[in-house]
Write a structure and sequence with these properties.
This protein is of the alpha/beta class. Helices cover 45% and strands 17% of the residues.
């Protein structure tokens, strides 16, 4: 059995996917690299097949009709043979030295017959045109170089959360929680890092700068203009986060607190983007969104809507909306979310 499956979802990725693939290959025979060609219409499939022919014991290609990012990850989960599971987007890449350190640690644990549920590492905001890259680490939050549980985790401040870039899951955890991401939907990475968390009992934090998260394409889903255009998909993912996990039922307080804080950030981003669009129709969607939360879970609605962040980012009237946008903009600058 392979130690680690690395899934690379690709859709029309011919211009950058080789950098991504080349960055994971130094992991060698411990890796299974699954390139998911998600219905590409350019040379993505040809490039993927080249790597599979050159590295037949490491690289496998799955060609499928287009299902979106979530559909590609679902295919990866279904076909993964590795003990652990990592998603690397085709426009991102990883540090090969850090990869070897992670593999060595997972090998050591396996030799001791220890299989952690989640490994956490650092990621880098690799923003185009910026010389000094921002590194997101968890050194003041998580114990280093040992196995720990949620009860030993510290406080995650606003804007510093576990993202898809920083997480390696044990593959069996993804099967246990029944993770199935929606197809043809953006922002499913929020579901990927949220839904399995109640099943995570053991963790290990290795403070290496592993994942390079590229920021710079105008069409990227995190671009605020693009997010506003795709606001219905943001709302869809936000609703699924609410529907699929009943936070009140989580027994571990640290897990519940962390997941609530993460959900709160996603919900506030949704609510504020509906304001920032400036479209009257989105103001109605915002009201309907809060009404949905209230009808689905009154306890959650009261905590979200009348918490400090909910009050600050949902001021009434035109003046209130302007103040809300300014608070949101300042919060983005200070905490770095969205």
């Amino acid at each position: 059995m392979k130690l680690l499956t690395v899934v690379i979802p690709c859709y029309n990725s011919q211009n950058y996917m080789q950098k991504c693939i080349n960055s994971v290959l130094p992991g060698g025979e411990d890796l299974e690299v699954l390139i998911i060609n998600d219905g590409s219409t350019d040379n993505t499939g040809v490039i993927a097949d080249f790597y599979a022919s050159r590295y037949p014991s490491i690289v496998k290609v799955i060609h499928q009709k287009n299902k979106g990012h979530g559909g590609a990850i679902n295919t990866g989960i279904k076909n993964a043979k590795g003990i652990y599971f990592k998603v690397v987007d085709s426009d991102d890449w990883i540090d090969s030295k850090a990869l070897l350190q992670i593999i060595n640690k997972l090998q050591q644990l396996r030799q001791d017959r220890i299989f952690i549920d989640m490994l956490v590492s650092n990621y880098i905001y690799d923003k185009q045109g910026v010389t000094r890259k921002a590194v997101m680490n968890y050194e003041k939050i998580l114990p280093k170089n040992r196995i720990f549980s949620w009860n030993e985790a510290g406080h995650f401040r606003k804007g510093k959360y576990l993202l898809m870039h920083s997480i390696i899951y044990k593959t069996s955890v993804l099967h246990e929680c029944g993770l199935q991401l929606p197809e043809h939907t953006f922002y499913v990475d929020n579901l990927f890092v949220y839904l399995p968390l109640p099943y995570i009992k053991t963790m290990y934090y290795l403070s290496v700068d592993f994942y390079h998260y590229y920021i710079g394409r105008d069409d990227q889903s995190i671009n605020e203009k693009v997010m506003i255009e795709r606001i219905d998909q943001q709302i869809k993912v936000n609703k699924l986060m609410i529907e699929l996990v009943d936070l009140k039922k989580l027994k571990n307080q640290k897990t519940r607190r962390y997941m609530f804080n993460y959900l709160e950030i996603i919900t506030m981003v949704t609510a504020v983007l509906l304001i920032r669009s400036g479209e009257e129709g989105n103001f109605y969607k915002r009201k309907a969104f809060w009404k949905y939360i209230k009808g689905n879970d009154l306890w959650l609605y009261l905590k979200l809507r009348f918490g400090v962040m909910g009050m600050a980012l949902n001021l009434p009237g035109k003046i209130g909306r302007k103040i809300t946008v300014k608070i949101y903009t300042l919060s983005r600058y200070i905490y770095g979310f969205n």
